[in-house]
Amino acid sequence: MIYFDKVSKWYNDKESVALENVTFQVAPHEFVSIVGHSGAGKSTLLKMLIAEDRPSEGSVFYESLDIHRIPRGKLPKFRRKIGTVFQDFKLLSNKTAFENIAFAMEANGRDDSEIAENVPQALALVDLEDKAWNFPHELSGGEKQRVAIARAIVNQPDIIIADEPTGNLDPIATYEVVQILRKINDLGTTVIMTTHNKGVIDELGRRVITMDSGRVIRDDATGKYVL
Ligand code: ADP
Ligand code: MG
């Protein structure tokens, strides 16, 4: 369970208000899309969840844990519960697909035998077994994003956060990425995704939270994209 309790975030002495009194919950295993115009506060909201930045007011809970009261030393352990995917993939250019995924496991203290077992499983989940030894520049945008998703799930997080994961992709790659996120959700992982893409929302038919100027203005149980 994720719970945003009256969260506000402002920058530069309230000159820029990114979130205003945002309250919502996400139950385990949900697939939630967050939509809204550029600047609506979507990325800021996700940053609060991975404790990359702090609310100016309000609290964010993961189960009974107040995320912004976690001692600094315990943050890495908390962050392991969350896999992240970004619009620009953030792959390491000097590592192959396999090595990019393996690197996330090494950073997590996993040993070679686990890596040898779990990386191929993650590659299979995103249907990229045949591209394991390709470098990012040898992959299409859609393939790069699928490697990034494999990296995000390889440590078996409870939650996947995807910030505009299809923002740089063509319609076919977009469809494939959404299908993979849906499959990961069906396997039990909570997914929270921001998107601008009405087609993606309609295709998913899942919960949609609409933001405008830092506020939640709609929360629809089944996919409506109204902007
Ligand atoms: P979205 O992801 O919906 O496009 P953001 O969450 O990135 O929106 O930004 C929401 C608002 O907060 C915007 O007006 C943005 O300019 C502002 N903002 C975000 N980060 C900062 C920052 N570090 N400093 C100042 N303003 C910021
Ligand atoms: Mg954003």
Description:
- The protein has helices at 42-49, 75-79, 97-107, 112-125, 141-153, 171-186, 198-204, and strands at residues 2-11, 16-26, 31-35, 57-62, 65-66, 82-86, 159-163, 190-194, 207-212, 215-220.
- It has 227 residues and is of the alpha/beta class.
- It has a 6-stranded mixed β-sheet, sandwiched between helices. A 4-stranded antiparallel β-sheet has the order 2-1-4-5, covered by helices on one side.
- β4 and β5 form a beta hairpin.
- α3 crosses α4, α3 runs parallel beside α5 and α4 (112-125) crosses α5 (141-153).
- The model has no long low-confidence stretch (mean pLDDT 95).
- Bound molecules: adenosine-5'-diphosphate and magnesium ion.
- Residues 11-12, 16, 18, 36, 38-44 line the site of adenosine-5'-diphosphate.
- One of its GO terms (biological process) is cell division.
Outline of the structure:
The protein is of the alpha/beta class and 227 residues long.
Can you tag this structure with a few keywords?
227 residues; alpha/beta; 4-stranded antiparallel beta sheet; globular; binds adenosine-5'-diphosphate; binds magnesium ion; cell cycle; transmembrane transporter activity; nucleotide-binding; ATP binding; cell division
